[in-house]
Amino acid sequence: MGSIDDLFMILKAMKADELHIRVGIPPVIVHQGRQQHLNWTVITLEEAERMLQHVATTRQRRELREHGSVRFLYTFQATTPFIVHATLENEIVRLVVS
């Protein structure tokens, strides 16, 4: 099991379009329109929550809980901005990073 920063490094290195993080499956990279499951452990609910905690501010997490969806900019390693779209369905977090 790695960290969300490891996933951002993969996304950046592959110059992929998106990263999908969903509970119950390994992370998925979308590159040139093709989805590819990463060689990664299945994402647990706790791991998805930790990843959200790492990239979202308290205000952004509150907005997610109140509205079920939030979109924000996260700057990785102070140089690479990513758009994070977090959704909440049945108390389960899903992240799409582009």
Topology:
Blueprint: H1 4-14, E1 18-22, E2 28-31, E3 34-37, H2 45-55, H3 58-67, E4 69-76, E5 80-89, E6 92-97
Antiparallel strand pairs: 1-2, 1-6, 2-3, 4-5, 5-6
Protein architecture, described:
The protein has 98 residues and is an alpha+beta fold. It has a single domain (4-97), classed as Beta-Lactamase (2-Layer Sandwich), CATH 3.30.450. It is built from three helices and six strands; from the N terminus they run αβββααβββ. A six-stranded antiparallel beta sheet has the order 3-2-1-6-5-4, with helices on one face. β4 (69-76) and β5 (80-89) form a beta hairpin. The chain is globular, with a radius of gyration of 13 Å. The model has no long low-confidence stretch (mean pLDDT 94).
Q: Nutshell version of this structure?
A:
The protein is of the alpha+beta class. The protein has 3 helices and 6 strands. A hairpin with a 3-residue loop joins strand 4 and strand 5.
Question: What structural keywords apply?
Answer:
globular, single chain, Beta-Lactamase, 33% helix, alpha+beta, six-stranded antiparallel beta sheet, 98 residues
